[in-house]
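I am hoping you can look over what I have pasted underneath with an eye to the fold:
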Amino acid sequence: MRPLPLFSLFSLFSLFSLFSLLVWAPYSFAALPMKCSLTATSDHFWFYQEQRVFESEQFVIFQNFKGRVVTQVDLKTGKFSRTTYIGEPFTPRYQVLFGLCEEPNHILKMWHMSSVPYDN
Protein backbone atom coordinates (compact mmCIF):
# COMPACT_ATOMS: atom_id res chain seq x y z
CA MET A 1 0.00 0.00 0.00
CA ARG A 2 1.41 3.40 -1.03
CA PRO A 3 1.36 6.33 1.40
CA LEU A 4 -0.89 9.23 0.47
CA PRO A 5 0.88 12.01 -1.37
CA LEU A 6 1.38 15.29 0.44
CA PHE A 7 -1.18 16.94 -1.85
CA SER A 8 -3.92 14.53 -0.70
CA LEU A 9 -3.09 15.03 2.97
CA PHE A 10 -3.24 18.79 2.51
CA SER A 11 -6.61 18.49 0.75
CA LEU A 12 -8.02 16.35 3.55
CA PHE A 13 -6.77 18.80 6.16
CA SER A 14 -8.30 21.73 4.24
CA LEU A 15 -11.66 19.99 3.99
CA PHE A 16 -11.61 19.15 7.69
CA SER A 17 -10.71 22.76 8.57
CA LEU A 18 -13.50 24.12 6.40
CA PHE A 19 -16.00 21.68 7.91
CA SER A 20 -15.03 22.57 11.48
CA LEU A 21 -15.23 26.28 10.68
CA LEU A 22 -18.74 25.90 9.30
CA VAL A 23 -19.89 23.79 12.23
CA TRP A 24 -18.41 25.89 15.05
CA ALA A 25 -18.64 29.41 13.57
CA PRO A 26 -22.08 30.24 15.02
CA TYR A 27 -20.91 29.36 18.52
CA SER A 28 -17.74 31.44 18.35
CA PHE A 29 -19.64 34.65 17.51
CA ALA A 30 -21.58 34.45 20.78
CA ALA A 31 -18.33 34.42 22.78
CA LEU A 32 -16.95 37.46 20.93
CA PRO A 33 -16.58 40.34 23.44
CA MET A 34 -17.30 44.01 22.84
CA LYS A 35 -13.99 45.65 23.75
CA CYS A 36 -14.02 49.11 25.30
CA SER A 37 -11.39 51.33 26.89
CA LEU A 38 -11.53 54.36 29.15
CA THR A 39 -10.61 57.78 27.79
CA ALA A 40 -8.87 58.96 30.98
CA THR A 41 -6.79 55.85 31.72
CA SER A 42 -5.57 52.72 29.95
CA ASP A 43 -8.20 50.50 31.61
CA HIS A 44 -10.21 48.15 29.40
CA PHE A 45 -13.63 46.57 29.75
CA TRP A 46 -14.99 43.59 27.82
CA PHE A 47 -18.72 43.07 27.55
CA TYR A 48 -20.36 39.80 26.54
CA GLN A 49 -23.69 38.95 24.98
CA GLU A 50 -25.00 37.57 28.29
CA GLN A 51 -24.52 40.96 29.99
CA ARG A 52 -26.71 42.81 27.47
CA VAL A 53 -30.07 43.78 29.00
CA PHE A 54 -31.38 46.24 26.38
CA GLU A 55 -30.64 47.11 22.76
CA SER A 56 -32.09 49.66 20.35
CA GLU A 57 -30.91 51.33 17.15
CA GLN A 58 -29.31 54.12 19.22
CA PHE A 59 -27.69 52.38 22.18
CA VAL A 60 -27.12 49.13 24.05
CA ILE A 61 -27.11 48.65 27.83
CA PHE A 62 -25.00 46.12 29.73
CA GLN A 63 -25.48 45.20 33.36
CA ASN A 64 -23.30 43.16 35.70
CA PHE A 65 -22.48 42.64 39.36
CA LYS A 66 -26.18 42.16 40.18
CA GLY A 67 -27.14 45.48 38.63
CA ARG A 68 -24.61 47.57 40.52
CA VAL A 69 -22.68 48.36 37.32
CA VAL A 70 -24.55 49.66 34.27
CA THR A 71 -22.87 50.56 30.97
CA GLN A 72 -24.57 52.40 28.11
CA VAL A 73 -22.89 52.34 24.67
CA ASP A 74 -23.92 54.87 22.02
CA LEU A 75 -24.00 52.90 18.75
CA LYS A 76 -23.47 55.94 16.51
CA THR A 77 -20.33 57.24 18.19
CA GLY A 78 -19.06 54.16 20.07
CA LYS A 79 -18.78 56.22 23.27
CA PHE A 80 -19.83 54.64 26.53
CA SER A 81 -20.61 55.68 30.08
CA ARG A 82 -20.21 53.19 32.93
CA THR A 83 -21.96 53.88 36.21
CA THR A 84 -21.03 51.98 39.36
CA TYR A 85 -23.30 52.26 42.39
CA ILE A 86 -21.17 52.15 45.54
CA GLY A 87 -22.19 51.37 49.11
CA GLU A 88 -25.17 49.79 50.77
CA PRO A 89 -28.59 49.87 49.15
CA PHE A 90 -30.24 53.31 49.19
CA THR A 91 -26.90 55.08 49.63
CA PRO A 92 -26.70 57.63 46.80
CA ARG A 93 -23.01 57.28 45.94
CA TYR A 94 -21.81 56.37 42.48
CA GLN A 95 -18.89 56.58 40.07
CA VAL A 96 -19.23 57.42 36.36
CA LEU A 97 -16.50 56.54 33.83
CA PHE A 98 -16.35 57.40 30.12
CA GLY A 99 -14.70 55.65 27.21
CA LEU A 100 -14.88 54.33 23.67
CA CYS A 101 -15.84 50.89 22.30
CA GLU A 102 -14.28 49.24 19.24
CA GLU A 103 -16.83 48.57 16.46
CA PRO A 104 -19.93 48.06 18.62
CA ASN A 105 -22.27 47.67 15.62
CA HIS A 106 -20.10 44.92 14.13
CA ILE A 107 -20.04 43.01 17.42
CA LEU A 108 -23.82 43.25 17.78
CA LYS A 109 -24.27 41.90 14.23
CA MET A 110 -22.03 38.94 15.08
CA TRP A 111 -24.07 38.28 18.22
CA HIS A 112 -27.28 38.39 16.18
CA MET A 113 -25.80 35.93 13.69
CA SER A 114 -24.98 33.52 16.51
CA SER A 115 -28.61 33.51 17.64
CA VAL A 116 -29.97 32.55 14.20
CA PRO A 117 -30.70 28.82 14.05
CA TYR A 118 -29.05 26.87 11.25
CA ASP A 119 -30.73 24.13 9.25
CA ASN A 120 -29.36 20.62 9.65
Remarks:
- The two ends are 37 Å apart (CA to CA).
- Strands lie at 34-38, 44-47, 52-55, 59-64, 69-74, 79-86, 93-101.
- The helical segments are 6-30, 104-114.
- Residues 6-114 form one domain.
